[in-house]
Design goal:
66 residues, 0% strand
């Protein structure tokens, strides 16, 4: 429904894929494709890796910041 110039921005959002897969599974009763699962694994790996780097960097002060 978004204009064509916003399509790339929308698909760059990692939640778009997750919401689309859940929506298809719930409304259509179809399992996600291998490509969708691969992209989801990629996004989760990037998020886990970046959060691990942040945690390692701030580990000495982590308890103080909570």
């Amino acid at each position: 429904m978004a204009p064509p110039f916003l399509q790339a921005v929308i698909w760059a959002n990692p939640l778009t894929l997750f919401i689309g897969v859940v929506r298809t599974a719930v409304l259509d009763g179809q399992a996600p494709s291998a490509a969708q699962l691969g992209l989801m694994v990629l996004w989760v790996s990037i998020a886990l890796g970046s959060s691990l780097l942040v945690f390692i960097r701030y580990q000495p002060r982590f308890a103080e910041e909570l």
